[in-house]
Specification:
The protein has helices at 7-23, 26-35, 40-48, 67-80, 82-102, 105-116, 135-138, 234-270, 282-310, 316-341, 343-346, 352-360, 369-379; strands at residues 122-125, 142-146, 149-160, 167-173, 185-191, 197-202, 212-223, 227-228, 272-273, 276-277. By secondary structure, it is an alpha+beta fold. A four-stranded mixed beta sheet has the order 1-4-5-8, with helices on one face.
Length: 386
């Protein structure tokens, strides 16, 4: 059992750290949070350095990395800003990995090089109103075949990055399966500028630079070759994307938690009360020790889930565990950071409040932690709890 990164990953981390220091300053992270503007220029700089191409095969212009590389990039970017980590995550996971997992060879040849160059952005249009975690029970958006095309009608909500995406990886109903809810679903690559698509930007508490949207599909025509994978089997295909999503968002939570720890630790060293630094008080030390220990546990679980995926070993349970643990730990690190900084943590000009706002999202997205627990229990052999 070897916990050391190889030389290539050490070089990648060093490149990441230099990039973050130069391009992702705390001032930049605050500015995009306040303006709620997507960091297009930064996205292109990440592509120029090869970050977008790294986790993909060189067959399509990638750099032969894997999900471990993806996880490391997300973690380090998210330590600078959860919005920046999510900016990277949106297209590599929802677009790139979906296309890699179940796209046609023609789709891979066309889309992946454009992702790697920073030319294209993707979003996953999956969740529907009234659905949340119950994606299958709430799915009402349909695609009806009409000759050599499909016509899509319906609505999606909580779709992050849709307003800046070039293509929407869109999951819809194309048929009926009386035996399973997961039957009869298909996935399409839909041009986000297609006639009949309209969007409404939603205002949210955290991670504001990567906007979240409602999408309305009204007689949206897509060519038949925009179908990804096999018709009516879209759910079994997209599950691989969702496992990648859970590990990636676990890494994002680890990054936010690490940022909260580092800022709280520095604050505890310099903030003086009762004639000595507050880091000398046992209660503050306990907070910091707990934060450090918990974050390291979340990191190791996240890395293990990524390693399992990289080996092609079934890891649905471990992916859910990583998401569950990292999201809870990342949020609690921000909560403890707020307590350590007290009134200063509550002020908008300090970053701790941003970590608090950003980390809260992943307690209930992309699935609630309650649902993650139910899924883990099922994987342990217990009856379905939902």
């Amino acid at each position: 059992m070897d916990f050391e990164f190889n030389e290539d990953r050490k070089m990648m981390i060093a490149t990441l750290e230099k990039f973050i220091q130069k391009e992702c300053s705390p001032e930049f992270a605050r500015a995009i949070d306040e303006s709620e503007e997507f960091p297009h220029e930064l996205y292109h700089k990440m592509a120029d350095l090869g970050f977008m191409a790294l986790p993909f095969s060189d067959k399509y212009g990638g750099m032969n990395g894997n999900i471990i590389d993806e996880v490391l990039i997300i973690e380090y970017l998210s330590k600078a800003s959860a919005a920046i980590g999510l900016t990277y995550f949106l297209s590599t996971c929802f677009g790139g990995k979906s296309i890699e997992y179940f796209g046609t060879d023609e789709q891979k040849q066309f889309f992946l090089p454009k992702l790697f160059s920073g030319e294209m952005l993707f979003a996953l249009a999956l969740t529907e109103p009234g659905g949340g975690t119950d994606i299958l029970g709430s799915m009402k958006t349909t695609a009806v075949k009409d000759g050599d095309r499909y016509v899509i009608n319906g609505q999606k909500t909580f779709i992050t990055g849709a307003h800046v995406a070039d293509y929407l990886v869109t999951v819809v109903k194309t048929g009926k399966d009386t035996e399973k809810k997961s039957g009869g679903l298909s996935t399409f690559l839909v041009d986000a500028k297609s006639p009949g698509i309209s969007m409404r930007r939603l205002h949210k508490l955290g991670i504001r630079a990567t906007g979240t949207n409602e999408i309305f599909f009204t007689d949206v025509v897509v060519p038949a070759d925009s179908l990804m994978g096999v018709e009516h089997r879209g759910w079994s295909q997209v599950v691989n994307t969702l496992n990648n999503e859970r590990v990636g968002l676990a890494a994002l939570s680890v990054g936010v938690g690490q940022a909260a720890l580092e800022i709280a630790l520095e604050y505890a060293k310099v903030r003086v009360a009762f004639s000595r630094p507050i880091g000398a008080f046992q209660s503050i030390q306990n907070y910091l020790a707990e934060m450090a220990t918990d974050i390291e546990m979340a990191r190791l679980l996240t890395y293990k889930a990524a390693w399992l995926q990289s080996k092609g070993i079934r890891s649905a349970k471990e992916s859910a565990m990583a998401k569950l643990a990292a999201s809870e730990i990342g949020f609690q690190a921000a909560v403890k950071g707020m307590r350590i900084m007290a009134g200063y943590g509550y002020m908008m000009e300090y970053d701790m409040q941003r970590f608090f706002r950003d980390a809260e999202l992943f307690l209930h997205a992309p699935i609630t932690n309650e649902m993650a627990k139910s899924f883990i229990a099922m994987e342990m052999g217990l009856p379905r709890g939902y």
